[in-house]
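Give me the fold.
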Amino acid sequence: MARMIGLLAIGALAGLALPAGVPRAADVPREIALTIEKHRFQPEEIRVKAGAPFVLVITNKDRGAEEFESRDLRLEKVIPAGKTVRLRMPALKPGTYPFVGEYHEATAKGRLVVE
């Protein structure tokens, strides 16, 4: 019986080990959802950890295209109507990075706060 338990324990540990090259959960960048609806970003403020890359998942629920733009991030990306776009973001330094929807700058505003 003790041998059986020992074999089960070894099998369980082997199941936890990942082959080289397979990303662990801690290695997978965090995904942050951002929605464009009625020409506004929701949420208007996003907070992320400094030095940690992440993925910005932007969904445009409006009938027209919108362009996510941030001069500070040097980033422009058109988000077609009804579509979702994933942007891999690099590790950033602490600071506040404003962004806008270039086609509706008066209402589509937000900021990325890196802490």
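The chain is about 15% helix and 45% strand.
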